[in-house]
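Q&A log
Question type: sequence-to-structure
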Amino acid sequence: MQGLLDLLTGGGGEGSNPYAVIFNLLFFVFIIFSIFYGQRIQQFMWLKQIERALMKLDVWQREGKVICKLRVSNFSDASDEEVFDTIEGFLEFFMIMPVDKDPAGVLNRLEHLMDVRKSRFEDFVSRVAPKANEADSKTLENVIEATIAVFTIFRIIRHFLLLGKKTKSTFLIMQIYMQLPLIMIFAKAYFEALKCFAEGKPIGDGVGPLVAARLMRGGEPKEVAKEVVAVEKNINNRNVIIVKAKGPGGTVGKPGLGVKNVIEEKEGKVARVIMIDAALKLEGEVTGDVIEGVGAAIGDPGPEKHKIEESGVKYNIPIDAIIVKQSIEDALTSMKKSIATSVDDVIKRIHWIINNQTNEGDTIVVAGIGNTLGVGQ
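Response status: OK
Response body:
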């Protein structure tokens, strides 16, 4: 006890400093308080950060709904209130992924579900926006998709916030807090994408279709798969077939099926497949950098990529990949100048591959992968 008193009084004796006594006493009170209540304080601070993020998400999802509903109203004879109620009821639409414990045929089942989901979106848009033409309908689908994405992120964060408060689980609150910065990046990207879709502006992910559109100039496009067109041209005495999603509506189409159909039409006599797509850059890398590799450059859940790979194996066709680096925000928002100017570099690389890795008279397939919003043929 005497030792503790000496510590509090700064060593005891007549020369003891009274301020030292107060400071040391407060210090020990703080230590004891931290032992018993430190975790509660940390939880409180985490919850406040999550609440602030949720408030921002709430603003985004509300603004997103308004943008979506006003855009749809331009193509509908129904009252604004009827349009708003109809869209509100569709924003929690979901798709259950197929069982993967028995992987045989899982890609076919996944593709079937994705086709059904796509048709439901098409039917919904045709019902709420009967005046919309084909291109506008595809763009409205994108607007609704982005609205659902922002709304879903808001609902998930709200769920974990309320569940954390209810259970007072430090581990649960900490998990959502630690992931919050990345979640907010995705949410903001989808919100900005929603505004771009509503305005019909090309986005960063459209760099693949933009390259294909440049190569297609002067050709006559024909449909080779659902929402996918192709143009056949002579480039340096090679027969080059350029494939892209049908623009200028916002769609990615079924490019894997399109490439497969072109290869089958040529009976497998294709010397090379060259694919162009956007790809996520690493932090510290430059947006718009162009790099090359091999493989099917396509970011779908699996079915379209599988078709291209399967055709390549079946006919022993090399598959080249040219990608343009960009972040998730770059890919989903208005196309930056650095991305647009990368198109010339990509085209130079395509010509180099055609001239140096194929022979005169060969058939080459060039596929521009991505959302073709605002990019025609």
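Response note: The chain has two domains: 44-199, 204-368.
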